[in-house]
């Protein structure tokens, strides 16, 4: 016997299967936990149970791990759920006088399924608060998992279509009463509200999301006459997505007898203009090469002009800016001389590979502005700066980037880094910053010509690293320690011998935090003890997520492996937890203008061969 639609219980000790349209279940109270099961039962669906063991053991207790529920359609599995107990401690069945209360403390979580059925289960698993009539999820983490990881298995356009389909669906062959219809719509609106609150500005400019929100808003306005209780949800949607309604007649009221059939919708232009302007005028990290293998890492305005950039470089290099020009090297190998009023980051320069500064009077335009031999003679300005102020300035830059980062960027970076790079810009900027701070530490030490100054410089960097840890900036802590541990710096034995014992001890303690042994146990323990807000070491977080991604299949028998997505979402939520500041522990402080001017323009040599040449020039091989 086969069924087009049925449910199969995979019990370790299942009850016997009865003939007919019904089957006896071991725990009817447990079955009633699933609204989806109830609705399928109303539609005449049958329940199929796996009965591989004898019925004589049916009275034995079953563990939650052994109880799985499988929904089949057209002979194929479409959703697999597993029973779990609530986190609240439960009394024994004998103490309660039976097993009914225990059944109420159980719920079902998604193991795998098709995207549509997973979404349907999440909506069915919501309950409405009878007092406030607002949707509350029984398992908010499961809903959060879905909203964070849906790009792995479906597009934003597909999600929008599925949500609209659920809002407009007519369930139970048109027999759905008004109360059930209102409850179904409010559940979906709660999911949309949570989605919009979660993505913030991350997906607001997506054309599919814009169209979806306007369409959903129109449907809600049409439903206000039949369901006046949706007025509160209309206001919430207006607040979340900056929507407002314009009617051809009098102001619409759900209590009027005549129903308005058409509503003109628009986005609040001022809201979107302000968001767009903010996004376009944000600060970015820019590399300006001052030689063929070294550059200045500069934190500048995205609307910066070539003249402004040249002036900033000239002040950093202590050279009159009138003697320099800015040249853009394009990927095909072309050279473009930027005029003073040209925007450095204009759309016409998207193919630019590198920016160089050159002397005006040089015959060959790409000759380096300054040679490494000259760079080596420059004095280290950092020796005159306060170490705490330097750590504050470094953390201020890192926090500005990290605070603008969205947790879903980790998902896009891990699964779709080559497709959706525009969604991962803050994440990539912070990774770039970590790499540049490491190279900056190496550059400053290796460009310091005298032994005594190098000793002072390494001592300063050790103190800066300790201050970064105190300011809960672990990303910068790792970068500085890795810079000091780099082969070109660590081989300077004469320099390290002069470092005082207390600084060596402090360096050893900081170095232990970056120790990769036992899966970075020391770092993970230190990180857990730190109060948010804090900046994690992002490369390790990405490594953990990549390990989960590569070690687990995304699909099992064409069903989405939701257990894997739960692990991915847990890691992504680390970003959200690190950004929170419930206790007012604010991570950012105000740095002095002098220190900030130095930190905003870090001089970096990115050629490892050049760095080793400088190292051997300072301390030749024995």
Describe the structure.
It is a single chain. The chain is an alpha+beta fold and 622 residues long. It has 4 domains: 1-88 and 106-112, no CATH class; 114-280, Son of sevenless (SoS) protein, Chain S, domain 1 (Up-down Bundle); 284-370, Roll (Ubiquitin-like (UB roll)), CATH 3.10.20.90; 379-618, Son of Sevenless (SoS) protein, Chain S, domain 2, CATH 1.10.840.10. It is built from 26 helices and 17 strands. The strands form 4 sheets. A 7-stranded mixed sheet has the order 2-1-3-4-5-16-15. A 6-stranded mixed sheet has the order 13-12-14-10-11-17, with helices on both faces. A two-stranded antiparallel ribbon has the order 6-7. A hairpin with a 2-residue loop joins strand 15 (555-556) and strand 16. It is elongated, with a radius of gyration of 31 Å.
Structural class, please?
alpha+beta
Principal-axis shape equals elongated
| Strand coverage percent | 5-15%
Rounded radius of gyration (Å):
31 Å
Report the span from N to C terminus.
Answer: 85 Å
Largest sheet: 7 strands, mixed
Number of helices: 26
Assigned CATH architecture of the largest domain? Orthogonal Bundle
Going by CATH, what is the homologous superfamily of the largest domain?
Answer: Ras guanine-nucleotide exchange factors catalytic domain
How many strands? 17
**Can you give the mean pLDDT?**
77
| Strands in their spatial order, largest beta sheet | 2-1-3-4-5-16-15
What do we call the CATH topology of the largest domain? Son of Sevenless (SoS) protein, Chain S, domain 2
CATH class of the largest domain: Mainly Alpha
| Number of spatially distinct domains | 4
């Amino acid at each position: 016997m086969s069924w087009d639609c049925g449910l199969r219980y995979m019990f370790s000790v299942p009850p016997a299967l009865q003939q007919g349209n019904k089957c006896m279940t071991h725990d009817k109270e447990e079955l009633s936990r699933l609204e989806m099961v109830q609705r399928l039962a109303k539609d005449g669906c049958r329940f199929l149970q796996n009965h591989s063991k004898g019925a004589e053991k049916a009275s034995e207790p079953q563990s939650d791990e052994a109880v799985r529920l499988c929904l089949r359609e057209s002979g194929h599995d479409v959703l697999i759920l597993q029973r779990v107990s609530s986190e609240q401690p439960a009394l024994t069945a004998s103490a309660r006088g039976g097993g009914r209360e225990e059944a109420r403390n159980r719920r079902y979580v998604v193991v795998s399924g098709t995207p549509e059925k997973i979404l349907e289960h999440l909506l069915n698993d919501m309950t409405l608060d009878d007092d406030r009539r607002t949707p509350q999820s029984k398992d908010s983490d499961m809903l959060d998992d879905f909203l964070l990881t849906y790009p792995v298995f479906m597009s934003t356009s597909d999600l929008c279509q599925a949500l609209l389909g659920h809002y407009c669906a007519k369930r139970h062959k048109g027999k759905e009463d008004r109360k059930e219809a209102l409850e179904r719509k409010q559940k979906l609106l709660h999911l949309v509200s949570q989605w919009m609150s979660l993505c913030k500005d991350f997906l607001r400019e997506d054309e599919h999301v814009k169209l979806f929100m306007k369409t959903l808003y129109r449907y809600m306005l049409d439903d206000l006459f039949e369901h006046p209780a949706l007025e509160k949800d209309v206001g919430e949607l207006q607040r979340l997505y900056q929507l407002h309604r314009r009617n051809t007649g009098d102001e619409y009221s759900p209590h009027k007898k005549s129903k308005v059939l058409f509503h003109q919708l628009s986005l609040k232009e001022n809201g979107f203009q302000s968001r767009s302007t903010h996004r376009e005028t944000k600060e970015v990290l820019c590399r300006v090469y001052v030689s063929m293998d070294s550059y200045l890492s500069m934190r500048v305005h995205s609307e910066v002009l070539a003249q402004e950039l040249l002036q900033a470089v000239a002040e950093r290099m202590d050279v009159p800016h009138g003697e320099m020009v800015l040249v853009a090297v394009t990927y095909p190998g072309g050279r473009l001389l930027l005029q003073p009023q040209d925007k450095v980051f204009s759309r016409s320069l998207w193919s630019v590979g590198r920016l160089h500064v050159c002397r005006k009077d040089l015959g060959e335009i790409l000759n380096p502005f300054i040679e490494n031999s000259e760079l080596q003679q420059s004095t280290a300005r950092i020796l005159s700066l306060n170490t705490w102020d330097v750590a504050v300035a470094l953390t201020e830059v890192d926090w500005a980037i990290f605070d603008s980062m969205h947790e879903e960027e980790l998902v896009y970076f891990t699964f779709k880094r080559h497709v959706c790079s525009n969604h991962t810009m803050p994440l990539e900027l912070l990774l770039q910053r970590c790499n540049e701070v490491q190279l900056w530490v190496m550059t400053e030490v290796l460009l310091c010509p005298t032994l005594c100054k190098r000793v002072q410089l390494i001592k300063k960097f050790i103190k800066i690293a300790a201050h970064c840890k105190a300011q809960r900036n672990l990303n910068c802590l790792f970068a500085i320690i890795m810079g000091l541990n780099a082969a070109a710096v660590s081989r300077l034995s004469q320099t390290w011998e002069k470092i005082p014992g207390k600084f060596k001890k402090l360096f050893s303690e900081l170095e232990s935090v970056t120790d990769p042994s036992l899966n970075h146990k020391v770092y993970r323990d230190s990180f857990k003890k730190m109060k948010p807000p804090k900046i994690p070491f992002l490369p390790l977080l990405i490594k953990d997520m990549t390990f989960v991604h590569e070690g687990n299949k995304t699909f099992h028998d064409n069903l989405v492996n939701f257990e894997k997505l739960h692990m991915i979402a847990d890691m992504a939520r680390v970003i959200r937890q690190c950004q929170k500041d419930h206790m007012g522990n604010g991570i950012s402080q105000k740095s002095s203008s002098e220190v900030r001017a130095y930190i905003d323009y870090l001089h970096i040599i990115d050629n490892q061969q050049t760095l080793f040449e400088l190292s051997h020039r300072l301390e030749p091989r024995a």
